[in-house]
Amino acid sequence: MRAVDTIRKKRDGIALQRDEIASFVSGVVDGSVADYQASAFLMAVVWRGMTDEETAWLTEAMVASGERVDLGPCAPRAVDKHSTGGVGDKTSLVVAPVVAACGGVVPMMSGRGLGHTGGTLDKLEAIPGLRTDLDLAAFRRVVQAVGCAIVGQTASIVPADRVLYALRDVTATVDSVPLIVASILSKKIAEGTRGLVLDVKTGRGAFMADERGARRLAAALVSHGLRSGLAVEALVSAMDVPLGRAVGNALEVAEAIEVLRGGGPDDVVELCDHLAARMLVVAGLADDEAGALAGARAARTSGRGLEVFGRMVEAQGGDPRVVEQPRRLPAAAHRELVVGSRSGVVQAIDAVRIGLASVALGAGRERAGDAVDPAAGVVLLKRPGDPVAGADPVLELHFNDRARRDVAWPLATGAVDVADEAAASRPLILDRLDAARVAAATEE
Ligand code: URA
Predict the structure, then answer these.
(1) pLDDT of residue 113
(2) Which helix (H) or strand (E) holds 20?
(3) Cα 102 from chain centroid (whole Å)
(4) CA 200 to CA 191: how far, in whole Å?
(5) Taking the CB of residue 431, how many other CB atoms lie within 10 A of it?
(6) Hey, is 378 helix, strand or coil?
């Protein structure tokens, strides 16, 4: 089967067959399909789309391109959570141990910061000694012993995505629903999870800013996840304002620990409790929302989730003393306050500007492969709806490098909008799409 024929068919809007997709994907991995051919194919998919069958076959072929983790006796309780990316989103650090404390098993393969959004691996690696580059055997061991592990994708998991995602990133072919669905689901299926709760973000700080697009993506992820045999549902949540007060790696770990101690900002708590509760329902560990929420809250506020977090940190080589003494996390040499532009009420805090300011301070990467500064970041001293009087500080910048501070400063100072009155805000959790909702939408 020649790659050029598959590309031509897709270019001309003719649906591909299962063996054509399988052959193309295996060619991407073994090098017989050149990067320029894969890029042409990706662009043809962006323009022509894919049928549901083609998307399912692409997902299947991508899973088959690498290894698949077998969690053995833990597999029936395995459940993961995936977010499409936001600013200040430290929920994975909370929900993985909380769900494990409730009897779930969480084999989480996460990513690094991308653009203005943060990445769970960068956050966890702020803990001294902690490794996220475990091989599959070590990953399986930690998951089985502790109940959860958070690691990076290994080279043997969905190698096709590694090649295709890198090409999509540089050929303007990221935002295609079938390509996103196949990319996300193939990795989740290969990591060995049976259940999956997706957090599809929408709003200024999200990669799907438009709510209709986010709902469409959520519905496609749920319907294809179900088709692939996963128990899956999706929350659609607002990402207009950074989540919580801390943005930056060590700062976010400290805030996650606060949440695991029963405290922390209300929005982080609300999203963590709902995500963990839905994971328990999806994994069959709770019968209904009310019971699941009560279980998740109890695990979070009783310290059971924190205890599991400490064991996970230790099993991944990190210093577990950070759990009791978060001051052991890296701290920046300098802090500087940003004051409000006027007196009034905070109306909005631009998640993109805060995310970019945090990256500029060193918490993220300008280029793939750059080192990150675990201590750098931004703390929100005010949230939307809070009053600001005179020269009240609204943000605190944490940095080690003054040149970086100078780049971040204009981004941060323009991020907080103070007005006479607070703007009406929308709920944090906008919707939940499950099998029944997706089936009903298909019948309409
Ligand atoms: N995250 C992924 O893993 N893949 C995509 O295509 C988009 C977001």
Answers:
(1) 78
(2) helix 18-30
(3) 22
(4) 20
(5) 16
(6) strand
Q: How far apart are CA 222 and CA 208, in angstroms?
A: 16
Q: Which of 140, 134, 136, 132 shows the shortest CA–CA distance to 113?
A: 132
Calculate how far, in angstroms, residue 183's C-alpha sits from the geometric centre of ligand 1.
6
Task: Give yes or no for residue 369 having a pLDDT over 80.
Answer: no
Catalytic annotation on 187?
Answer: yes
- With a pLDDT cut of 70, the percent of the chain lying above it is 100
Q: Rounded to the nearest whole angstrom, what is the distance from the C-alpha of residue 300 to the centroid of ligand 1?
A: 29
Ligand 1 midpoint to CA 217 (Å) = 11
Known catalytic membership, residue 90: no
DSSP 293-351: HHHHHHHHHSSHHHHHHHHHHHHTT--GGGGT-GGGS---SEEEEEE-SSSEEEEEE-H
Mean pLDDT of 412-419: 96
| Number of neighbours of residue 294 by Cβ within 10 angstroms | 14
pLDDT at position 262 over 80: yes
The band of 319, judged by pLDDT with boundaries at 50, 70 and 90, is: very high
Closest residue CA from atom 5 of ligand 1: 180
Q: What is the pTM of this model?
A: 0.95
Q: Active-site residue among 65, 110, 183, 223?
A: 183
pLDDT at 386: 96
Number of H helices, E strands in the chain: 17, 13
* Cα 331 to averaged position of ligand 1 atoms, centre (Å): 31
Length of the chain: 444
CB 190 within 8 A of CB 157: yes
What's the token pair of residue 268? 């982080």
- Nearest 5°: the CA angle 272, 381, 259 is 25
Is residue 274 annotated as a catalytic residue, yes or no? Answer: no
Confidence of residue 420 (pLDDT cuts 50, 70, 90): very high
Place of tokens 């459940």: 79
Task: Report pLDDT digits (tens) over 47-80.
Answer: 999 999 999 999 999 999 999 999 999 999 999 9
How does pLDDT run across 90-141, given as a tens digit for each residue? 999 999 999 999 999 999 999 887 788 889 999 999 999 999 999 999 999 9
Ligand 1 pocket test, pick from 92, 112, 158, 180 with the greatest ligand atom count within 8 Å of Cβ, gives 180
Q: Which atom of ligand 1 has the smallest separation from the CA of 182?
A: 6
Check the CA dihedral 109-114-116-121 and report its sign: positive
State the Cα–Cα distance between residues 243 and 263, nearest whole angstrom. Answer: 15
Which of 353, 42, 368 lies closest to 205 in space, CA to CA?
353
